[in-house]
């Protein structure tokens, strides 16, 4: 029964217009593994300076890691080099079809950040593998780049071990089965930007996990100015803590009066800051309001996980 549900979820995600990959084959994974990896430092901004320290003792998927800027990578590509794979942070354009009655044609395109992993000879093509960057909340800034790299590494390694490709959400579900029992002994950092007031009260009073809230959710407009130093430090230092995240698996079109909008569909996870492992995963789920898309962690989801993973 459990396998059937996972299979149905995988089919659903692969049918999405903007799922996380559609042209990845297991043969690509073997090629990825055999080549040295180049980290595009230009694409990561300030995070690029900390990646060598973070990946030194973590990244095992590729035997060799090199750090080059965009100009150096372009020179290799222009020379016809086929020896490397490239990891970079990019922006992907999500398009929607303009509908009759649309007043604002600027809404027809949305750019979203992704982590892209591709062969160097395909530098100007759609990457064989990419994932949308996870979010703590609207104040997260660049602090999720590091955990995204760890999640990507674990997913690639998991596909290599299994000998088959999988969606990130189905991989998260399998990881949850392995590690969720460890939640009872690890501190969970949960941004209040990922819960509403009603759920927060229930979580505080009825969930036995060691949950520490950061930030405040009473005014979403203020979240851009919140200090999430504890979450940032947990990622950067690789601490033994679990972080609540929302990860987008697809983008969908919805109607909104006279206009159409593109909104993310998310699944919610608890991720270990040091290892990047999924300790819990729920979804698909997204709550769309008239002005924004919020990714709320639900009390019922945590409670079910607590009961199941004793």
Explain the overall architecture.
By secondary structure, the protein is an alpha/beta fold. The protein contains nine helices and twelve strands. It has a five-stranded mixed sheet. A five-stranded mixed sheet has the order 7-6-8-9-10. Strands 11-12 form a two-stranded antiparallel ribbon. It is globular and about 60 Å long. The model is unreliable at 1-19, 97-107, 217-227 and 285-294 (pLDDT under 50).
Question: Helices and strands in order, then pairings?
Answer:
Blueprint (H helix, E strand, L loop, with lengths): L1 H13 L11 H9 L2 E4 L10 H6 L8 E4 L1 H9 L6 E11 L13 E11 L9 E4 L12 H18 L5 H12 L7 E5 L5 H10 L4 E4 L14 H9 L3 E16 L2 E14 L5 E8 L1 E2 L4 E2 L4 H10 L2
Parallel strand pairs: 1-2, 1-3, 6-7, 6-8
Antiparallel strand pairs: 3-4, 4-5, 8-9, 9-10, 11-12
